[in-house]
Amino acid sequence: MGKTRSVLTQSGRVINEAVSFIAFSILDLLDFLLCFLYKVVDLFVEADWKPCYCSSGKEAITNSGKILVSEQGESKIVCLSSSKLHLEDISDTLYSRPSLLSEVSKLTVSELKRLKLDGNYLNGEKMIKTSKASNTVRTSTFTINSTIVEMLQGKIGRQQLRPIPRWSDCDCQLCTSWVSSTCTNGKGTLFVRAEAPGPGPGSGSGSGSRDKAAREDVIFIHGFISSSSFWTETLFPNFSREAKSSYRLFAVDLLGFGRSPKPADSLYTLREHLDMIERSVLEAHKVKSNFHIVAHSLGCIVALALAVKHPQSVKSLTLLAPPYYPVPKGEQATQYVMRRIAPRRVWPPIAFGASLACWYEHISRTICLLICKNHRLWEFLTKLVTRNRVRTFLLEGFFCHTHNAAWHTLHNIICGTAGKLEGYLDTVREYLNCSVTIFHGKDDELIPVECSYNVQKRIPRAHVKVIENKDHITIVVGRQKAFARELEEIWSNSTNSS
After folding, report:
1. How far is CA 441 from the centre of its chain?
2. pTM for the whole thing?
3. Residue 416 DSSP one-character state
4. Regions of the chain with pLDDT less than 70
5. Of 64, 159, 424, 457, which has the fewest CB atoms closer than 10 Å, so is most exposed?
6. Looking at the annotation, which residues are catalytic?
7. Nearby residues of 285 by Cβ (< 8 Å), 6 or more positions away
């Protein structure tokens, strides 16, 4: 039986590899064709030939009003405004996503070169000289792209905020509710759902006054293509009366998602996400100290960065399914993580979906065009077919975003921070006194359980709780009452220990 199972497993793996190669080779071609199609439509509808990341990084960044500083390894963008010079980290995976055929070709050539070098191993002296010569060529200098000259000649002056959605984005009242506030105050803030003891600030940005009855604050950060409803529709109604009288609860829609601003000119970098949370929650609601953070999936990365930026203020850190993949030595961090979360396989289905979202800029835009722009139709059909048995808040979180926001957030947060996460975790271990608790569903196919144990290896005091028969979503949805009690216990223990 064991041998038969092994043969079947191996056969299934081979079939998956073969089918995946054919499927993703076709998708490579389809994305290439869609690239030209969207450029033509953009030119016709918006009178602007939009660059994309299929072209060189130089063209994409130049035309977007930014300066590309480095094209090797960790890339950075210089943003110039009238008063500030920003250096933002962007992921090279945005413009360096080789097709499956080209990757196979490179691997084949590399393998042939390796075999040839092994055959010429006796010519040791020649090999040594060659390696010495190659080593003298390598440098670690920080080069500035020549694009800066063109940028300084006037392109920056034409850069402006674009609150109006693109033709391929939804323009309904829910998705564009942020436009009026942005046009009014010039900058806008995130949508924040707040609950406080007594007369609270309610929905939106709310009041900045702090209720005297609340001892501490809690900030909830959702994951990828989700919204604050992931927390407010599950946990908020299930917190005890004592918890609601002791804590102010803040659930944010991240920049580009839910009812928060979705600027078309944003690169959705980690700095932008952090700045918006600080402006919309910490400053607007006067959250200065003694706050807890609860985060899910991609939100865990934002939570770690926020905790590191405010080390004296965080009381507890609760992470759900953190996407932490330790990068082996010699591997390029961004590319390694992209291949882990999006392996370009047709099975399991969740890996196929992640691969579509991560590898294909124009196919993922087409999916957003079909689903997000027409989300009202899909919500109606879902309610009709399921007879209102599906929790609609999950649909709202899934639908209410733009392709620009999802594409850049996925690459710049999950892939782009791959080389920084170890530093964040080490800082939490060495310099933060907060408690760290990690929850993970055992059946999570999107982010494997070992990611949580990897975090625990970097932070030994972190407590990992693996929940049986739960996946990436049902770790909260479906067990909200139990999870609400667990959070209350974490907050209470961290307060008593301090």
Report:
1. 19
2. 0.84
3. T
4. 55-88, 104-164, 180-187, 198-214, 389-392, 498
5. 457
6. 222, 297, 444, 472
7. 192, 194, 201, 206, 207, 208, 210, 217, 248, 250
